């Protein structure tokens, strides 16, 4: 319960900070200042916004399906929140050390699709229904290359436990880890022990997963479910107050969750970036509970920053471009990575 409540409070705090950071990132890219009035450098702007949303009336449209309309935002947020249960934060800190941690995260995230359908149908609004339909088609399509890219990493480690996957990328590893299959690095740890360097195709698998995760998070250039120029506000057009805040909290929570999964699978998890070099035991000195939390969060937040950067840099895909890219480019490339992982595991590792 302590860990669960701590994660919930962290997600809320992180979302407030992430909204402010995205406003500042977009302002920097567009050569403007962003929020500056509420608090120093606008630091209290998102806090003021959430206070406003909490106090606003929760309006339910007369023609809406009341129960679907009310429950949908809760399902969307809870499905994202429950995904954090299997994420290892440090060698000794993990919510649930399940042997099927990877499968659990993929399964629980998929429940979010049900929430999107409930939002679109329950709102009884054509724009909301269009946005929800787009979101479901997009997420279901991009879950395939994302899942296959994840399996490419799992095949190298031979485990579905996110904790075991993290252990096998650092100095605490029990099996021999080789940089690109040749040089033993598990005794020195550091960045060369990460999965992304264990085979030449793993960087491509990481890019495939990260690209697909943008689509699963409804982030640009895959944000057509919320295309303001076409759908006014997308699937959540009818929501106000705290329910509107829950939908946005889930979106920013999903950004962090998919980033943490990417870090655990490809970027060393809670392991340090520093190796042990002779008498300098940098990896040993920067390993532990507090260091583990620092490393996994810093890596994850860097990926979140990249997601924000992409949003304010790239244009939005058309629907046909989005679906074509997912099925014709990412899916075949993910299958190629899966095939190479099998060959690499048999012949090299």
From TrEMBL:
Known partners and oligomeric status: NDH-1 is composed of 14 different subunits. Subunits NuoA, H, J, K, L, M, N constitute the membrane sector of the complex.
GO molecular function annotation: NADH dehydrogenase activity; oxidoreductase activity, acting on NAD(P)H, quinone or similar compound as acceptor; quinone binding
Transmembrane segments: 67-90, 102-124, 144-167, 188-212, 244-267, 288-310, 330-348
PANTHER family attached to this UniProt entry: NADH DEHYDROGENASE SUBUNIT 1 (PTHR11432), NADH-UBIQUINONE OXIDOREDUCTASE CHAIN 1 (PTHR11432:SF3)
Protein name as catalogued: NADH-quinone oxidoreductase subunit H
Any coiled-coil regions, as ranges: none
Gene this chain is encoded by: nuoH
Keyword hit for Chaperone: no
Family annotation (HAMAP family): NDH1_NuoH
Topology versus the membrane: Multi-pass membrane protein
Family per record: Belongs to the complex I subunit 1 family.
InterPro entries the UniProt entry points to: NADH_UbQ_OxRdtase_su1/FPO, NADH_UbQ_OxRdtase_su1_CS
Catalytic activity: a quinone + NADH + 5 H(+)(in) = a quinol + NAD(+) + 4 H(+)(out)
A GO cellular-component term linked to this record: plasma membrane
UniProt cross-references to Pfam families, sorted A to Z: NADHdh (PF00146)
Swiss-Prot/TrEMBL GO biological process terms: aerobic respiration
Domain of life: Bacteria
EC number(s) recorded for this UniProt protein: 7.1.1.-
